[in-house]
Amino acid sequence: MISEFFILNSKGGLVVSKSIKDNLRKNLAEVFRIQVISNIQVGSSKNLSPVLTLGSTSFLYLKYNDLFFVAVTRSNQDCSIILEFMYKFVDLLNSIILTIKNNFISVGEILDEVLDNGYPQTMEPDSIRHCISDEKLQKRKNIRKNTNSGSETVSDSGLISRSTSFPTEANQLSTSDITWRREGIKYRRNEIFLDVHEKINLLMNATGQVLNSYIDGHIQMKTRLSGMPICNIGLNDSTQIMSDMPTNGFDDSLTGHVTHLSNCNFHQCVSLTKFDTDRIIRFVPPDDEKFELMSYRCQAPLPSIHTSQGINLPFIVKPIVTTSFARIIYRIHIHSLYSRKFSSKNVELKIPIPKDASTNSRSYKIVTSLGKTKVMPYDNCLIWRFSKYGGDQEASLEAEFQIQSNATTTPGNALMALAIDQDSEAWKKPPIQLHFEFNMSSLSGMAIKFLKVEEPTSYSTVKWINYISKAGSYEIRY
């Protein structure tokens, strides 16, 4: 896959190089410097692509902290996989080495471990740390600091190592079934942080009917647990996987809300033996690092549905936009559909206005029952903002703008002037956009039923579970 990998500084100097295949020229780093770095230095990098192809040779690169990470490949390779590897490689270096520029030898050692004959291998930090020689850590002056996980050693070079003993041979961990977690971890306080992130994407017409809607969600975790624990997460009984759905897309026999999940992807630490039957996610978590345990999509079962079906919609917006002579009039009503015991924050409606609408404060009128408004002339929109919006709450807005025209507008030629303006780009009526965020139950209805930790010592664990919901593309036509 990858024939050569090298790292260059901002001036094109070669700092790390790994040649994998012998069928490449030896001056490829110089070719990259001339073709890419020189163009960036002269300021002509506006339209540069992250993939440069010269003949049958392709250079894939990314820039990070004045360093260029470059992968060279021949023939037709999957660029997305290589770029994903490069980004994960940079993240791996940041998790192991504090300063990359002062540790190029260690970077080369890590590169030897993650690339085998040009193909990416394990990218787990705990597995790679064993491959860095301990002699370098012993020869440098160490600075020790105490954390709630025990003592941690940070050398002058920026290499991070735990005070617990490591296996002397790297293959002891690589041959293990659990490469993402080392043994002997101890914490004074055992904690689990679990966040359920969901982003709703929706298209609604002027009457409040949903034309299309789906939710993209993922479960993000970070654990500080001693030993080699096994975590069990149970989902609520109403959660169904796509394979469990009836052929008509909706189970009419169920009176309660049903959550249909599809496109489920799991972290490599997850064992799915009990997931299909009991909705239990069983796994040994990585230590003290954020990771995505699961990602999913929740799609409304029917293409055209009422707002109360399928997905727990947080808001319904009903706009009425009319034009009369040289004026445009907005009447917008917003209603929150969630419970009164909850509230959302940073609620904002972005209401498009024609580019020919007068933004002079004397030429428009805005009246609202709640919230604050602001006209953005450069963005051709009216912003209606609420710092906090309660559940089962309603608000209304009425706004009137005058339409400017080059021709003198009279009752006789008003319709002609309006027809001319309607042909302009501003009169294509882009949809109203709604933005919001709140921390409460998930919009899809998926919930964490339980979170249990199995460990021989049966220590107590502090568990933090949070639900974070936001608007993705939440649009309303009018």
UniProtKB/TrEMBL annotation:
Pfam families (alphabetical): Adap_comp_sub, Clat_adaptor_s
Location(s) in or outside the cell: Endomembrane system
Source species, domain of life: Eukaryota
Annotated Gene Ontology cellular component terms: clathrin adaptor complex; endomembrane system
Keyword Membrane among record annotations: yes
Keyword DNA-binding: no
Biological process annotations from GO: intracellular protein transport; vesicle-mediated transport
Transmembrane segments: none
Keywords on record: Membrane, Protein transport, Transport
Residue ranges annotated for the MHD domain, each copy included: 189-477
Primary subcellular site in the record, as a coarse category: membrane
Entry-linked Gene3D superfamilies: 3.30.450.60, Mu homology domain, subdomain B
UniProt similarity note: Belongs to the adaptor complexes medium subunit family.
PANTHER family (alphabetical): AP COMPLEX SUBUNIT MU (PTHR10529)
Name of the featured protein: MHD domain-containing protein
Organism, scientific name: Babjeviella inositovora NRRL Y-12698
Organism placement in taxonomy: Eukaryota, Fungi, Dikarya, Ascomycota, Saccharomycotina
